[in-house]
Amino acid sequence: MDIQDILKPENLVYQKTKLLTDTPMHYCPGCSHGVVHKILAELIDEMGIQERSIGVAPVGCAVFAYNYIDIDWQEAAHGRAPAVATGISRVNPDAFVFTYQGDGDLASIGAAEIMHACNRGENILVVFINNGIYGMTGGQMAPTTLEGMVTATTPYGRNTDLNGYPMRITNLIAQLPGTSYVTRQAVHTAGGVRKCKRALKKAIQNVLDKKGTSFVEVVSTCNSGWKMSPVASNKWMEENMIPYYPLGDMKDSVKGEHSEN
Questions:
Q1: pLDDT (tens digit, 9 = 90+) per residue, 201-257?
Q2: Regarding the domain delimited by 26-252, which CATH topology (the fold level of the hierarchy) does it fall under?
Q3: Counting Cβ atoms within 10 Å, is residue 9 exposed (0-12), middle (13-18) or buried (19+)?
Q4: Domain ranges in the chain?
Q5: DSSP string, 176-242
Q6: Which of 14, 88, 153, 208 could serve as a FRET partner for 197 with CA atoms 20 to 30 Å apart?
Q7: pLDDT digits over 17-31, tens only?
Q8: What pTM was computed for the model?
Q9: Which helix (H) or strand (E) holds 53?
């Protein structure tokens, strides 16, 4: 049998969704961004909402998301994605609107925007990539950087006396009455990818059902910023990040109710 007969699309175990473009991804090997992009593209395709989907990407490693997922996109200033998404969602109430943000963007310069958007219960999905560091701009300390973690601005490790404590901002978000679904996931294993996809599907459906804000944190690696190999980064994340940022649902309720697990 000729190899081209074997490689027919119907014989392949994995087929790339049509919503992922052919643009080569610029992310570092081992980065979690590409996996989350793939999940989002698959879900938007499978749920048949490509024409209704509008993503908002601010500054950071995720800013070029518009190159990879074939939907409408709007760029936002650093930290301002929830404010921009609020305007888009209110003008287009039947659209699926989501932000895609890193920890420096969302938990630092954008802390006010995310807290107030979630408190208002804006009908959007927030995808929060938490790798504990500023990945694009040189590896500086972020609000989520762990205690003792070495970064470009904490060369001797994060010192809580000087720098404060790592921020579990997703835990804070879960307390707000405007949020309907708040969860923390990871994509470093096949099982983790499946769980994250289920969580994102639920979050997207909540937006379509106008249940308020859904918030999905993805605990991630940054092997370039952490100065580790992809394999070592995954191991370090499992041993350090996930114990401090445990995975699982924190809230699953309709808008206006508190139902944290």
A1: 999 999 999 999 999 999 999 988 899 999 999 999 999 999 999 999 999 986 544
A2: Rossmann fold (3.40.50)
A3: exposed
A4: 26-252
A5: STTEEEEEEEE-SSHHHHHHHHHHHHHHHHHHHTT--EEEEEEE---HHHHT--HHHHHHHIIIIIH
A6: 88
A7: 889 998 988 898 889
A8: 0.91
A9: strand 53-57
